[in-house]
Design goal:
5-stranded mixed beta sheet, alpha/beta, 42% helix
């Protein structure tokens, strides 16, 4: 018999007949009227070339062929049922690792909160943070070597899901008692200072320099590095000033820096989270995405308190 020509609903009819031993009751148990159930039984007999069920004193008695088929039919229906059932997802029993491509700043901001959250809600999941490489990111997501990516992205293929998280802006940091910030940080003292810059391009041009160029001014950059996380310690132990994301404020203060508003207008931005359609449709994937979203909100910087306790010079 060719399975392609078999109506799988007939297996449900067979199972109902085997359980009920009565055409009417069997049909009712699977939502078929008695004529439809009789028709299904006739089709089963033709397919298996056997009477399957015959009238007896206690109802429809299965033949030896039906007895042989019954456990196989029940097993097949169980497998199909399990395939169609939505298994309830419990993150406490979820296992595996979640690989996140992110900048050092995003890791600093999210990792402590995520470790705490997972230890409570998904203790068997492990977090793997890897450096962001935008040149290979799409291939990493497609190959599932990266579960999520967090950063700033331009155009991405439509097959990816993306969500805006973690708004940010710029502030300036300097060591405590820096001679140029005793009365706050003015544009004049900003330009007089020597600066540290985070750059990935092996140059000395950042958002600040582009904004200053529009004003016909320039600053002196004497140190560059490829990670924001390194700047607070460098600045705290020198006379350098750095312009960094506001979300780095807690790290800067722990290092021994004061935090100031930027003395010129600079752009704000929002990080995004990116994941695949497969991740979006898996219970574990949805849990991870929702968890990162929730923790990103819990780590938002309160801009109203960023400069509390710092003397601000009125320009």
């Amino acid at each position: 018999m060719n399975i392609n020509s078999l109506d799988l609903n007939l297996l449900k009819a067979f199972d109902a007949m085997y359980r009920e031993r009565h055409v009417g009751r069997a049909g009712a148990s699977i939502g078929l009227a008695q004529p439809s159930m009789s028709n299904a039984l006739n089709r089963l007999r033709a397919r298996f070339e056997d009477p399957l069920f015959q009238r007896g004193p206690g109802g429809m008695v299965p033949t030896s062929r039906a007895e042989e088929l019954a456990p196989k039919v029940q097993g097949a229906l169980t497998i199909v049922s399990e395939m169609l059932e939505q298994t309830e997802f419990d993150p406490k029993h979820a296992q595996g690792q979640i690989t996140v491509a992110a900048s050092d700043l995003a890791i600093l901001r999210l990792a402590p909160a995520m470790v705490t959250y997972f230890s409570k809600h998904a203790p068997n999941l492990s977090l793997i943070f890897v450096p962001m490489n935008k040149m290979t990111l799409i291939d990493q997501l497609d190959a599932e070597t990266v579960t999520l990516a967090i950063g700033t992205f331009g155009h991405l293929p439509a097959r990816f899901h993306r969500r805006t998280i973690m708004p940010d802006s710029f502030v300036c940091i300097a060591r405590r008692d820096h001679p140029l910030t005793r009365d706050g940080l003015t544009l004049e003292s900003f330009l007089e200072a020597r600066h540290a810059l985070m750059t990935l391009n092996n140059d000395k041009i950042g958002f600040v320099d582009k904004a200053l160029k529009k004003l016909g001014k320039a600053r002196q950059v004497v140190l560059t590095c490829a990670q924001f996380a390194l700047l607070p310690d460098i600045v705290a132990q020198s006379d350098l000033i750095a312009t960094v994301p506001t979300s780095l404020t807690p790290v800067a203060r722990r290092a021994g820096c004061d935090v100031f508003p930027t003395p010129l207008d600079l752009p704000k931005w929002e990080s995004e989270m990116v994941w695949t359609q497969k991740t979006a449709h898996e219970p574990l994937g949805r849990f991870v995405v929702d968890s990162f979203t929730e923790m990103s909100r819990s780590t938002e910087i309160d801009l109203g308190n960023t400069f509390s306790g710092v003397r601000i010079h009125n320009q």
